[in-house]
Amino acid sequence: MLAYSDAEEPSVASSRPMSSVLVIDDEPGMRHFLQKILAPHFALVETAEDAEAADALRQRCHFDLLISDIRLPGKSGVEWVQELRDQGGMESVIFITAHADLDTAISALRAGAADFILKPFRADQILASVERCMDRIKVNRENFVLRRQEARMYDSLDLVGNCDVIQSVCEIIKRVAPMPSTVLIDGESGTGKELAARAIHRWSGRSGSFVPINCGAISPELLESELFGHQKGAFTGAHQARDGLFTYADGGTLFLDEIGEMPLAMQAKLLRVLESRTIRPVGANKEIPVDVRIVAATNRDLHDEVEAGRFREDLYYRLNVLSIRMPALRERVEDIPALTSHFMTSLSNELGVQLPHYGERDLEALRSYSWPGNVREFKNVIERCLLLNRSPAQCLALQAASGATATPSGGGEARVLADVEKQHILRVLAESDGNKSEAARCLGISRKTLERKLQVWAREDGQA
User: Fold this and answer.
1) Beta-carbon contacts of residue 40 (< 8 Å; ≥ 6 apart)
2) Mean pLDDT along residues 441-445
3) CB atoms closer than 10 angstroms to residue 253
4) Which residue, among 325, 321, 274, has the nearest Cα to 297 in the 3D structure?
């Protein structure tokens, strides 16, 4: 008589339509039971009565998860899994057994068991274990993908361009990167401030992570917790303790983008961290030392912000140990051929489309555009060319015909930059159906910055 129950089969939080599982047990009833409860949640469920039969199935197809009895005819489950590990097998394993002792448990863990379940067990017990195991597999795969993406990103961190101003920026970055000093990067939106910050981290030799945060994209109430972390119960909704970004950046670099958007109260706390090199999580009683290199960026004139009382003077001087200015694209039009080649090649590979041909007429059209959105807008235009299978000249002509601002630089009828920026932002907002958050994301600015600009324009229109 079987000593397990399938009377109640709970629902699993999420099915695994693309995953597969192999059950190895010498009891036909157990194999039938597990196949029945796992079948609704997996694309493939196979069963085997011993290690030899399981090996034959593994030769035919891949399995994401193995559920194996420890005592099997011939080779034990632990011995078999240990052999798989020695051969490079990567499947996650859940062991089940009716004969548990300390030595058996230790052997199972050494063989790499993800879980260890005693017979008899209920359907909800095994399903809960499977769900936890598959969640770990998902997280591990996502982390692997992120590491690969980060590696590819780091491979292309060099700033593209040969003009004197961009080469000067590169030389400064290489010189200051190994130093622990704080760096302030300023420049218009879309000029590549985060790219420069990543380059500083890459060339710094620091072993920790590069951790970016947009100070204008997080509400003032949550920014302190986001940066410093919090203790359980520190505020309503803090159901568990959480590390902050300073902790994740320990040994590495914390990139504070849109630092000019940081509230004054938070500026005082950041200043203390920069001076003491310690953080205090929200709700904590003691400070934690951190080794974090700060790189900040802004598209505002922080000196003007200090004069207006919107930015602390002491923090400004603490951040502005060294300032790097990222030039606007209109200041480096000689780099447009190199940028065109770079983005055409990288985006065509990314999108899986054929690398198009472009000529001098296209380059001249790209040179003559004012680029209020700078390199970010330039990249978007090149991507649009690839998606629509049109030349850059055609895309810019369509953009101009639809109300976009293709203004020749140096032309007698050229509008001032502020007008170009205004029309561009309003066009993006209209294309986003008035959704300010979506428009801000497309523009690469914070919603707060967008709302401030709209308020200024509303006042100007009211006075006109």
Assistant:
1) 15
2) 73
3) 23
4) 325
Amino acid at 461: D
Q: What is the 3-state secondary structure (H, E, C) of 253-275?
A: EEEEECHHHCCHHHHHHHHHHHH
Entry pTM = 0.55
**Average predicted confidence (pLDDT) for the chain:** 82
Which residue has 């602390």 as its token pair? 312
Q: What is the distance between the alpha carbons of residues 72 and 3, in angstroms, rounded to a whole number?
A: 18
Confidence at residue 77, expressed as pLDDT on a 0 to 100 scale: 85
> Is 145 exposed, middle or buried, given 0-12, 13-18 or 19+ CB atoms closer than 10 A?
exposed
Which DSSP letter does residue 101 get?
A: -
Percent above pLDDT 70 for the chain: 85
Q: For 227-265, write each residue's pLDDT tens digit.
A: 998 888 877 777 787 888 998 898 999 999 999 999 999
The alpha carbon torsion through 318, 302, 230, 436 (nearest 10 deg) reads -160
Quote the tokens at residue 292.
Answer: 């974090």
Q: d(Cα 355, Cα 389) in Å, to the nearest integer?
A: 10
Q: Which domains does the chain have, with CATH numbers?
A: 16-143 (3.40.50.2300), 158-325 (3.40.50.300), 331-413 (1.10.8.60), 415-464 (1.10.10.60)
CA distance 141 to 135: 10
- DSSP character string of 178-235: TS---EEEE--TTS-HHHHHHHHHHHHT--S-EEEEETTSS-HHHHHHHHHEE-TTSS
Contact partners, residue 455, CB within 8 Å, separation at least 6:
none
Nearest CA-CA partner of 336 in 308, 374, 298 = 374
The region of weakest confidence among 16-20, 32-36, 302-306, 405-409 is: 405-409
| Tens of pLDDT, residues 286-334 | 888 889 999 999 998 999 999 999 999 999 999 999 999 999 999 999 9
Cβ distance 258 to 224 under 8 Å?
A: no
Q: Is 96 helix (H, G, I), strand (E, B) or coil?
A: strand
